[in-house]
């Protein structure tokens, strides 16, 4: 299959995925919005609702990226990108769709399996973009860096929600202690991932989520200022994640990815 066909298929898959996401968000799949379902299984690491506005940024950038790959089909960099990431992107769309449907039908535990597959697929795409990097190309690395980072923290929250649904006892530890453990482990995993994909954008949406977690813990509609230690951990974690992004940006010579040779 040639590159232009792959690029068009990617755009079609993305539009279908976006439509299904919209249906899930407004409650057309099972009569309940994603927020309503999320509110049924609130965790101490659930970000504030305003934090989820990042989806509009991510999906706008992805739409632009899909269109640019079609328009610039003769550009050697985009040809290589299409050939390297198309199949993985199609898989990510399928995982995304399956996750939305399962979550909409309140199959939280099963949805965890698909969101894990989803975020792994996105991380593999980031790895492919590292392999084909050229100069200071930024659109694809930024788009997929944001996407992967946000899905990473969404996966952590999804796992926490599944544990709430299962009434997990937490081995006798308090919810706050487990919240601290999950935020700390997430940062360790992010360091491991960024050493592989070297994408300076990747930690930033996670930092945004940590800010959202802090805001929800403080807010009247959230936990009304309870769990002070977890609030502090969320803020410190946000600062650490921003520092990780800054260090990677510096190591990349002030670029999203390390500069590569011309293709």
Element layout with pairings:
Layout: H1 3-26, H2 34-40, H3 54-71, H4 76-104, H5 108-131, H6 139-165, H7 175-197, H8 203-218, H9 228-251
Helix pairs in contact: 1-3, 1-4, 3-6, 4-5, 5-6, 6-8, 7-9, 8-9
How would you describe this structure to a colleague?
The protein is 73% helix and 0% strand. It has 263 residues and is mostly helical.
**How many strand units?**
0
Q: Give the number of helices.
A: 9
Task: Give the percentage of residues in beta strands.
Answer: under 5%
Task: Bin the helical content.
Answer: over 70%
Mean pLDDT: 95
Low-confidence stretches: none
Rg from Cα:
19 Å
The profile of the biggest β sheet is:
none
Intertermini distance: 21 Å
Total separate domains: 1
Structural class label = mainly alpha
Summed up, what is this model?
Helix content is 73%, strand content 0%. The chain has helices at 3-26, 34-40, 54-71, 76-104, 108-131, 139-165, 175-197, 203-218, 228-251.
State the main characteristics.
263 residues; mainly alpha; 0% strand; globular
């Amino acid at each position: 299959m040639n590159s232009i066909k792959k690029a068009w298929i990617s755009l079609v898959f993305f539009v279908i995925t976006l439509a299904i996401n919209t249906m899930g968000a407004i409650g057309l799949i099972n009569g309940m919005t994603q927020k309503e379902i999320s509110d049924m299984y609130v965790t101490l690491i659930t970000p504030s609702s305003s934090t989820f506005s990042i989806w509009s940024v991510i999906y706008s950038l992805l739409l632009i990226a899909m269109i640019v790959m079609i328009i610039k089909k003769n550009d050697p960099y985009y040809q290589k990108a299409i050939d390297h990431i198309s199949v993985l992107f199609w898989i990510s769309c399928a995982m995304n769709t399956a996750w939305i449907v399962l979550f909409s039908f309140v199959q939280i535990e099963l949805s965890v399996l698909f969101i894990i597959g989803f975020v792994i697929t996105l991380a593999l795409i980031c790895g492919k973009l590292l392999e084909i990097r050229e100069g200071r190309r930024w659109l694809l690395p930024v788009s997929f860096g944001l996407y992967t980072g946000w899905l990473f923290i969404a996966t952590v929250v999804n796992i926490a929600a599944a544990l709430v649904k299962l009434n997990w006892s937490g081995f006798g530890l308090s919810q706050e202690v487990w919240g601290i453990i999950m935020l700390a482990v997430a940062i360790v995993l992010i360091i491991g991932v960024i050493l592989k994909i070297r994408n300076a954008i990747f930690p930033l949406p996670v930092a945004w989520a940590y800010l959202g977690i802090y805001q929800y813990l403080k807010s009247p509609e959230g936990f009304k200022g309870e769990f002070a230690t977890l609030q502090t951990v969320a803020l410190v974690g946000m600062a650490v994640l921003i520092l990780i992004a800054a260090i990677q940006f510096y190591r990349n010579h002030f670029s999203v990815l390390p500069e590569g040779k011309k293709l």
